[in-house]
Design goal:
Number of strands: 2
Largest sheet: 2 strands, antiparallel
Shape: globular
Structural class: mainly alpha
Low-confidence stretches: none
Mean pLDDT: 84
Bound molecules: zinc ion
């Protein structure tokens, strides 16, 4: 496996905005800790960035996070799915949704 960020696959390219590059909170595989802050990925900054990028498309965020979840399971093996779901998918749901 190479370590290209998954968001560069499947059409999830980030828009070029002309803003200066900021350190991007991306996962360090196969440990799935953040390369920038060292927290369990997705860290709070990564979640905020992902939500900000796709604020009009929460479903797109969930689909993107599902691809990360698949890679996480590939790297770490099967484990408690509820925990992984909370970590990767649950927070992508729009606020107020059931
Ligand atoms: Zn981070």
């Amino acid at each position: 496996m190479n370590e290209r960020p998954l968001h560069t696959f499947r059409g999830f390219n980030m828009k070029v905005t002309g803003e200066p590059p900021r350190p991007t909170h991306v996962p360090q595989r196969p440990a799935w800790t953040c390369r920038v802050c060292g927290d369990e990925w997705p860290c709070n900054a990564a979640r905020e960035n992902l939500l900000a990028e796709k604020q009009d498309d929460p479903t797109g965020t969930a689909v993107l996070m599902w691809t990360y979840l698949e890679s996480f399971i590939f790297d770490q093996g099967p484990g408690p799915l509820g925990d992984a779901f909370e970590r990767f998918i649950a927070w992508t749901r729009p606020r107020g949704a059931a």
